[in-house]
Recover the amino acids of this structure.
């Protein structure tokens, strides 16, 4: 795999080819990944996988016309052809007065911050031992009847970006992941449970036996789901699924949706959207953060930002194109996937915890539901309407009771955000970290 420095040079070289072919400006992004994984099932080796991939994306501008192309063929002849084809395509594209690179005077300068994203690769034998330890612990949980397997994986990636107007930068990151999935019960009464962890450093992952134990316990806890009545009631989102609420928030404040007038939040910038005291931050410079990066997908600097400050929505997430359309400055939230134009996304999101423990959060709930799994995508960012299949556990008289499945929870995101109450039980183990979130007044459709 190329080093970040070598990857930057590869990007710069293909931009030179494009300008020689007639492009007025351009940028190139290089993304490389390698991974290896070992899966164990029922104490036996199920699979061993290893993969490597490299991709280069080139975006060129001819006046206000642009084109974006990508390739995994990185030899000189292929890159010559890529640059020529991109320029030809751009000349035939319609004009876009908002097209262009990021503002030159805003480009990131200096050396990329060391965010501690790189670590040692485990050996295949270490991966095998980790997967076996997880599965052994999971299968030892009373009530577990079968295994879907345990997987241990390691990956490494390199990202580099160069532009024709002065930016060049790259960084490397490692990725350790561990997961186990178990089955409890038999026949039509089978239930599944899983647990997983991921980190840039293996030392940030909990012991393998604990991952396996939780996977087994979750499967057993789901056995014999009951029914529950329909009607309005409090819904508590487990931290594993509460992060989806922040995903909807990010979608709704992305520049592309604001430009199109397609967001239920488009008129609420600078206004209260969440309850007072709610703090939601986006931090791309978090040390060892799962989505940390030293610059954005257009070469702009990034920084920590409060998306919601004391309940108030602070603004939009903008790449250069959406910023121009709104007559604003980009916010450093551009992302690149390789072959396409920049999009917009967040980085490490945190919904700051509240003061109440989980037990205190649910203490006054006479009838409610704790959601641990969500199904389907019945969410409209245009209207905020929310309806998803769910499963989890009943809450009865302030206590978590038996499992339920096949229910639907519904509401409107504007109302849900306004009534969301965070507990204090946050764990900083994901790219999106939230505590348990209670939302009163949602509609639950039972069996």
């Amino acid at each position: 795999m190329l080093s970040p420095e070598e990857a930057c040079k590869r990007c710069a070289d293909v931009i030179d080819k494009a300008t020689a072919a007639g492009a007025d400006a351009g940028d190139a992004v290089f993304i490389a990944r390698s991974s290896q994984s070992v899966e164990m099932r029922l104490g036996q080796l199920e699979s061993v996988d290893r993969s490597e991939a490299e991709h280069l994306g080139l975006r060129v501008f001819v006046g206000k016309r642009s084109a974006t192309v990508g390739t995994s063929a990185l030899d000189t002849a292929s890159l010559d052809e890529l640059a020529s084809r991109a320029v030809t395509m751009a000349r035939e594209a319609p004009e876009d007065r908002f097209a262009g690179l990021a503002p030159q005077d805003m480009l990131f300068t200096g050396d990329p911050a060391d965010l501690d994203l790189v670590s040692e690769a485990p050996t295949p034998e270490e991966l095998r031992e980790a997967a076996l330890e997880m599965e052994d612990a999971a299968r030892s949980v009373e009530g577990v009847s079968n295994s879907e397997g345990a997987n241990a994986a390691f990956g490494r990636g390199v990202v580099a970006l160069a532009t024709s107007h002065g930016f060049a930068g790259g960084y490397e990151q490692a990725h350790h992941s561990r997961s186990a999935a178990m089955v409890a019960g038999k026949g039509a009464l089978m239930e599944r449970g899983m647990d997983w962890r991921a980190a840039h450093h293996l030392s940030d992952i909990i012991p393998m036996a604990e991952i396996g134990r939780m996977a087994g316990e979750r499967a057993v806890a789901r056995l014999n789901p009951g029914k529950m009545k329909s009607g309005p009631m409090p819904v508590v989102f487990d931290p594993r699924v509460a992060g989806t609420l922040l995903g909807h928030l990010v979608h709704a404040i992305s520049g592309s949706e604001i430009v199109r007038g397609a967001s239920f939040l488009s008129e609420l910038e600078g206004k209260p959207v969440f309850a007072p005291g709610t703090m939601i931050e986006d931090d791309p410079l978090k040390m060892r953060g799962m989505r940390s990066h030293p610059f954005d997908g257009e070469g702009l600097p990034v920084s920590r930002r409060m998306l919601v400050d004391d309940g108030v929505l602070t603004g939009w997430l903008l790449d250069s194109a959406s910023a121009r359309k709104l007559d604003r400055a980009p916010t450093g939230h551009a992302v690149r996937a390789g072959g396409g134009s920049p999009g917009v996304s967040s980085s490490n999101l945190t919904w700051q915890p509240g003061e109440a423990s989980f037990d205190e959060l649910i203490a006054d709930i006479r009838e409610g539901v704790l959601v641990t799994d969500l199904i389907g995508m019945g969410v409209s960012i245009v209207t905020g309407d929310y309806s998803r299949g769910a499963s989890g556990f009943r809450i009865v008289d302030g206590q978590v009771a038996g499992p339920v499945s096949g229910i639907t929870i519904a509401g409107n995101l504007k109302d849900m955000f306004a009534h969301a109450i965070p507990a204090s039980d946050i764990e900083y183990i994901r790219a999106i970290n939230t505590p348990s979130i209670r939302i009163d007044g949602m509609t639950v459709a039972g069996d």
